[in-house]
Amino acid sequence: MSRTATVVLGGLALGFVAGSFFLGPSHISPGALLDGLFGGQGIDGVIARQIRLPRAALGLVVGSALGASGAALQGLFRNPLASPDVTGVTSCAGLGAVLALYFGLAAQFPLLLPLFAVLGSLGSAALLFILSRRGAAIMALVLAGVVISSLAVALTALALTFAPNPYAMSEMVLWMMGSLKDRTLHELLVATPLVLAGIALLLSAGRALDALTLGEEAAHSLGIDVAGARARVVVGVALATGAATAAAGAVSFVGLVVPHILRPFYGHSPARLILPSALGGAVLVTAADLLVRSIDPSEQLRLGVVTAMLGAPFFFALIIGLRRDA
Amino acid sequence: MVQVVGRSYLHNMRLLHGWIVLCLASAVPAGASPAASPGRVVSTFLCTDEYVFRLLPRNHIAALSFEATDRHPVVSTIADVAKGIAAIRPSAEGVLSLRPDLVVMYRDTMTPLHAQLAAAGVRILDVPWATSLGDVRRITHWLGGTLGARARADALLAQMDRALAHARAVAPRPPVRTLIYEPNGYATSGPLVGELMSAAGLVDTAPQLRLTRADTLPLEAVIAKAPELLILNGNPNAANTRAALVQHHPALAALSGNSKVAWADLVPLLCPGPWSVEIAPILADLGRQARQR
Fold it and tell me: What is the rounded CA–CA span in Å between residue B288 and residue B293?
């Protein structure tokens, strides 16, 4: 079952990435684009390598980061409502990125953009982690996430208002709704290693996350370094989500929805769910980006609008399910 | 090769506009029509600020909109020379507290403010939007008469005609295929811009391209079109917004072999008026450079 699901996910991811690569406002044939991608010179090569490739690949990278982070956070907090956006991690990453970008820091040192985003997400993930250790209930954690997220969004708006920025309103929409439009190879090359490092850290904590499903004491009795594993998850989520948000803005609900969709196929082990969730996140984000461009080629519609339209009803259904269980 | 006509150009333009405004003020006798001029005028919009500042003596202006002297970013051609005049963020209370005897507004803008001022019995002058040089002429002439500043309006139009004549004299022939590209991927285009480009020996390629519903132009469409001259409208050093990053996209470097890529801060095009024509000789110069490559 899980093998079939993985093959299907892989096929979908490849299909959507190919679709993303071949779909664009310039009517260039697939053959010309492929020629351009593999060493072709001229306009086709530039469009293939510097515009279409970064966009399609960033869809994979951003989606993987959010999907894997959602699975790991749900395992860490033993909370089905945990995800980077619901817990405020994405919003704080956006705040960090906005501070770096709009006050000119990123223009001086481009790596400060993902670094600030990672620091922002690290701060919120660490805060939630401390709350969870103090025995906060599931709903309390979600409410804390809502508070952190609201504060981060407000501070982002404040920062954009004070930044010498004539486009403050439109840029706020970008950071709150996310977009993969006109991204560069540089952004792809900066985001990819950080996301890969983050997912690697999450995978390294997989066994500990499985043990934590039995409770903290049981995990200790199994010889698990619980504190170390938690730290790896927090840093891993911060790296992956921070890098993804720095590149694409806040893309919501991916980390929440994907693990839930995949759990029937992969079971309830957090360790088994991290990698498929990365793949599932990649599928969802690239599909949503394709949908955005198909619905509105002018791209006034943002990526996060589509993911939120999918995720918000899902979130409600989860809350109703939790109430029923209670 | 990317040429920058950014800060220095902008600085020169501001100086030029400042000089023009000062020359107009000194060339026109103070008593030409002050008796007919309203004594306390408030302008509520950037594009009416440009007219009011040029047509009326300073002491007749009660306030301009904050955009007239805003520095983040500079969006008016009078940002330097209008310093010292009260700047307002228009609200009914704010405008009424200035006790204006005339409020100059752009037609169909700020409709709630317009309704409140009209209800309060304030005299309002609605300035229509100009979409051609003919409109600019008509509106300037009409405003000159209405504000009791006919001589200043005539001087503005004469200056406009001189700039147009100069641009036409130095314009490259045949016309240079040109695209003006703004932050967020907007194309600077339209009938008035088209007329100015035509006078400067350029032909606007934006109408031939499929602009999106929002009048934006995808980056890859710009690259595929490869105009002879690509003018990046804005400041090359203002990369600290997502909106401006599209103008710094590395893919644009691919055009350097086929196109001349130049930066120019085309602030005078934001509001249509006689001052917009000052941009024509600059465009003609860029066109000549593109042709000589």
Answer: 9
